[in-house]
Amino acid sequence: MEIPYILSSKQLLTIKKVYDDFQKHFQIVFIEDLIADTSPRQKQLYQAIQGIQLVTYNNILYTKIKDENFISSLPNLKILSYCGIGCDHLDLPLLHRHGIVVANSGAHDIVNTCAELGFGLMLTLARNIHTGMRAYLNEDFDCCTYLVVNSGSLLMESTLGIVGMGRIGYQIAERAAAFKMKIVYHNRTQRSKEDEERVNARYCQTLDELLRMSDHVMLIAPLSETTKNMIGARELKLMKPNAAIINISRGAVIDQEALIEALNNHTIQGAALDVTTPEPLPPDHPLLKMSNVIVTPHAAGATVKTFYSNFQICLESMKAAIEGRPVPNEIK
């Protein structure tokens, strides 16, 4: 039987183990080569492609999969598979309208990896670990002078406000409880009394209440029409002047311009952002120049173990769809 064709980006080449695994089952066409090919073979490849493997958000393919004309040019496309758990970056109605199955890699390992990075960012920001490294690079560095000004704050007995108390949020709450932090949370639905008592968490009916109380605000809410720019200038002004905000959800959950202004005006003390708008930020972006800001490259779900196991799930999903079997982790 002929090996099916799938479409990906050349970023897949940089992940050799994953690329080798995929190559055992599929003939891989790269989007960069496909759109540059003007020979008669190009039309044949468009006809042959049965699956798309989306590697990251920031490539040519990410733009193409939102293009109706491009999707229409792939008449035999059966599945789009991607590593991750969110789907806000996809045009699901467009894909489903063309009968294309959409599947992600699920959240089996990502919950713990995201929780660890979120907690790590909060700890780094609180204890000024990032500024300590920068200070060492200065020729006139003086340890005593630095520590007087940049000694940081203790997590123990400070208040963590978690916005989005799903699986990741609850894992962060468990870690915070071990650090003897006070925990408040805001969620669409209140968790059970047993869940709350286990981590000694208090439910906030409103986001405003949480923002006023918290020393650290952790954003883990999914991106939707209701959560887009949910943290804007008004919300930032409700926070304590010595408070910090940590975002491991989606960049658009925060009004980024309002955040920059709040950081410049010392409305809040600092921010740690694993997600931004756009991704990645341009090198001259103001957030990258601020000493009270940490920016990481959407790395919350990335560990070696998680990375490879998630791609293995994506591979199995693509095989299932192309072979006409039920697809694990299908997004309806």
Keywords:
alpha/beta; 332 residues; 5-stranded parallel β-sheet; 7-stranded parallel β-sheet; globular
Describe this structure in words.
The chain is an alpha/beta fold and 332 residues long. The protein has 15 helices and twelve strands. The strands form two sheets. Strands 8-7-6-9-10-11-12 form a seven-stranded parallel β-sheet, with helices on both faces. Strands 2-1-3-4-5 form a five-stranded parallel β-sheet. Helix 13 links the parallel strand 9 and strand 10 (244-247). Helix 1 (16-23) runs parallel beside helix 15 and helix 7 (110-126) crosses helix 10. The radius of gyration is 22 Å and the shape is globular. It starts with a strand and ends in a 10-residue tail after the last helix. The model has no long low-confidence stretch (mean pLDDT 92).
